[in-house]
Input
Amino acid sequence: MKNKKWSRKHDRCVVCGTMAEKHRANGLCQTCYSRKYRKENKESIQEHNNLPAVVEHRKKRQRKYYINNKESMLAYSKERYTSEQSYAYSLRRKYNISVEDYDNLYNSQSGRCAICGKHQAELNKRLSVDHNHDTGDIRGLLCLSCNVAIGLFGDNIQIVEEVLAYLNRFEK
Output
C-alpha cells in the first residue's frame, strides 16, 4: 500500500520525521504542532488556565479524582514521605551525606545533641543535621530546640556571646 501524503509538499512531519499523527498545519504531526502552539502562545494559555471557571473546573476534577483514588493516594504519600528511602534522598540532597555518614556522626556523639546533650530517646524527632550555611560543612547533630536556636541567631557568634552575657547578668 502506498503511503498517503499529508499535503502536496510533505509526506512526513518536517520536525520529527514521523508519518503518524497527521495534522493539517505546515507539515507538522499533531505532537509537534501542539508543542509549537504552546510555545508560541504561552501567555494566552497561562491566562486561560488562571480564569476562575477553569480553576474551579480543575479543582472539581482533582477532588473527584481524590475521592475515587483516596486509599491509593494516601498509601503513596505515606510511602513517599515517611520511608527510609525518602530520608536517604533528603540527606543526600540537603547535606550531601549518606545514611551511613549520619549513623557514624550519630554514633560518634553517642546519640546525643552536640549542644544540650539530650539523648535521641528523649526526643520526639530524630537529631537534625547542623551545617554551616556558607560552606555547607557539617558541624554535628542537634535536637530541634538547639538547631532552631542557632538558626534564630543566624549562626552569629557575637549575638550568642551577647545572649550569654545577658543570661549571666541575671544568674543568681
Summary: The longest strand covers residues 138-142.
